[in-house]
Structure formats: structure tokens, C-alpha cells
């Protein structure tokens, strides 16, 4: 009986310990201030859309430029930020690196450093999509009732 209560006590202390670390991560990374999230296909296990080297060059350029442009952290002047994530594969597997900007839902092909620079300058900073490299625009919806209906429909099948 005591091992059960000890286990529950350990779980509770781990939960509060974890919550503190998570709260600190939210603050440090500005997660609650994210306005856009860029995902890029890079460092693939099986490189299909482009070479692993090309994808890593694009990823490293994206990280460097977001930092240089001070887009990766909120500031007093600019309270929002742009988050970035390296995805192993975005499953398009052609004309890579593939890059997607959310919540805009703009999918770009051929995201080399020069294209990424245009995306950052024109799309992220200038709010103008770089049409020349877009192959899909599918913005995320904020109408969660639609999503809930779709989930309900899937469960009934």
C-alpha cells in the first residue's frame, strides 16, 4: 500500500516540477507570442525532395536569418514572433526543400536560402505571399466547430 502512495507522491512532485519547466519554456521561447510558425523539410532520414545537404543549408539559413531579423523572439517593439521547426519530412517529396508558413497555410517549394530570404522579407515582414514559389495555400481555420464536426463524422464511420 505504501508503494502506491509513494508512487502517487512521486508523480505529483514530478508533475509540479515538470510544470515549472514547461512554464519557463513558454516564457523563454515566447510560445504564447507566436504569430507565425515556419516548418521546413530538412535533415531527412530518406532525402527525396532534395539532398540532405541542401535541406540543412536551408534550415541553417532560416535559423540564422530569423535571429538576425529578431523575428524569433518577442520584443517590446514587436510583441509577436515567428517560430521555426525542422521537420524530417513534410511528405511532398519533390521540388524541395519544402517550407510551410502557418497559420497562413502557404506551402512553398524550392526553399533555398535565396527563396527563404524572399519569404522572410516579402511574406513574413511584408505580408505579401511569394507567389512564384507557392504550390498550395490552405489557411488554418479558427472555426473549431468545423473541426469538431469532422471528428464526430470520423468517429461514426
General description of the model:
- There is one protein chain.
- With 157 residues, this protein is α+β, with helices and mostly antiparallel strands.
- It has one domain (33-144): Glutaredoxin (3-Layer(aba) Sandwich), CATH 3.40.30.10.
- The chain contains 4 helices and 5 strands.
- It has helices at 2-29, 52-68, 113-125, 144-155; strands at residues 34-41, 81-87, 99-102, 106-108, 134-137.
- A 5-stranded mixed β-sheet has the order 2-1-3-4-5, covered by helices on one side.
- The chain is globular, with a radius of gyration of 20 Å.
* Total tally of structural domains: 1
Q: Give, in spatial order, the strands making up the sheet with the most strands.
A: 2-1-3-4-5
C-alpha termini separation:
44 Å
Which class best fits the helix and strand makeup? alpha+beta
Strand fraction band?
Answer: 15-25%
CATH architecture: 3-Layer(aba) Sandwich
CATH topology: Glutaredoxin
Could you say which overall geometry the principal axes of the C-alpha atoms support? globular
Give the helix level as a range of percent: 40-55%
Q: Mean pLDDT, rounded to whole units?
A: 87
Q: Write down the oligomeric state.
A: single chain
The CATH homologous superfamily is called Glutaredoxin
